[in-house]
């Protein structure tokens, strides 16, 4: 391989050579076009998934406001902070993926600093929010005081994934997948709120997170030839959190 082929290849400002070496990149030495096409498809896919995240949040929480199930005037201040930071994070996530898809890497990196504002506020106000919901929300039954534990764990998982994604931002394959996994895990309550209005068993809609991660794994397999290992971390974290929730509810339903 000559010096030219040894150089790190880029596509619209992003490095395309990582430890992740999909099968679709085997032909890179003789024909670099397939890799660039796969990268552009991937960027478009992540932008579409960001729009799906936004749709879940708007349908889950916006719908409650529209039908009068939520009130801004009666909520304590930390719920307002949580709502603003949540929508700020989701909005930023959509914009960031749009910028990557369009190839505006410079603005993407500048706007990314806003995440250092939204994410800490989001994490800090989530547990107080669940404590308030446990006392006032008819959607939650008396057992859900126990759910503060997995809820707090879910936010902790979100925070850890975001921090790791930022620390390895130069490895864009891991960065974008960890960010999506973290955000998908974060919006579980949005899925449950949708299910609340459509069926008596709203917990079924909690599997929407699995649906999103599963769709990403299938896309990787089709587009890159193999599933990226980052998805297994997101999938494993969600399954662990769901198992913890089920065990806690079961311990109350079937006391010893």
Give a structural overview.
The protein has 256 residues and is an all-alpha fold. Helix 5 (115-136) runs antiparallel to helix 6 (148-167). It is built from 10 helices and 2 strands; from the N terminus they run αββααααααααα. Residues 3-19, 24-33 and 138-142 have low confidence and may be disordered. The termini are far apart. Helix content is 70%, strand content 2%.
List the helices and strands and how they pair.
Blueprint: H1 3-6, E1 10-11, E2 14-15, H2 33-66, H3 77-102, H4 105-111, H5 115-136, H6 148-167, H7 172-186, H8 188-198, H9 208-224, H10 230-253
Antiparallel strand pairs: 1-2
Key terms:
256 residues, mainly alpha, 10 helices, 2 strands, 2% strand, globular
- State the end-to-end CA separation: 67 Å
Average pLDDT rating: 78
- Helix/strand/pairing category: mainly alpha
Q: Count the helices. How many?
A: 10
The major pleated sheet works out as: 2 strands, antiparallel
Q: Please indicate the percent range of residues in DSSP E strands (runs of 2 or more).
A: under 5%
C-alpha Rg (nearest Å): 20 Å
- Estimate the global geometry from the Cα principal axes: globular
| Quaternary structure | single chain
Number of strands: 2
Main β-sheet, spatial strand arrangement: 1-2
- Order of helix and strand elements from N to C terminus: HEEHHHHHHHHH
Return residue spans where pLDDT drops below 50 for at least 5 consecutive residues.
Answer: 3-19, 24-33, 138-142
Query: What is the helical fraction, as a range of percent?
Result: over 70%
The total domain count is: 1
């Amino acid at each position: 391989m000559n010096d030219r082929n040894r150089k790190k290849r880029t596509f619209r400002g992003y490095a395309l050579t990582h430890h992740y070496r999909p099968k679709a990149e085997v032909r890179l030495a003789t024909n670099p076009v397939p890799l660039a096409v796969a990268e552009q498809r991937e960027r478009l896919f992540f932008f579409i998934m960001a729009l799906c995240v936004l749709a879940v949040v708007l349908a889950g929480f916006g719908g409650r406001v529209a039908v009068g199930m939520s009130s801004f005037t009666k909520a304590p201040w930390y719920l307002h902070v949580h709502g603003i930071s949540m929508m700020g994070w989701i909005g930023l996530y959509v914009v960031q993926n749009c910028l990557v898809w369009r190839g505006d890497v410079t603005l993407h990196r500048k706007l990314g600093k806003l995440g250092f504002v939204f994410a800490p506020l989001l994490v800090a106000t989530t547990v107080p929010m669940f404590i308030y919901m446990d006392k006032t929300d008819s959607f939650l039954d008396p057992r859900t005081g126990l759910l503060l534990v997995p809820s707090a764990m879910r936010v902790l998982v979100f925070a850890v994934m975001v921090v790791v994604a930022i620390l390895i931002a130069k490895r864009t394959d891991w960065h974008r997948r960890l960010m999506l996994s973290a955000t998908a895990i974060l919006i579980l309550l949005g899925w449950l709120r949708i299910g609340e209005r459509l069926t008596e068993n709203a917990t079924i809609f909690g599997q929407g997170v699995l649906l999103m991660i599963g769709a990403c794994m299938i896309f990787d397999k089709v587009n890159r030839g193999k599933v990226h290992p980052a998805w297994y971390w997101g999938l494993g974290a969600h399954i662990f959190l769901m198992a913890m929730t089920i065990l806690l509810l079961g311990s109350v339903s079937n006391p010893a």
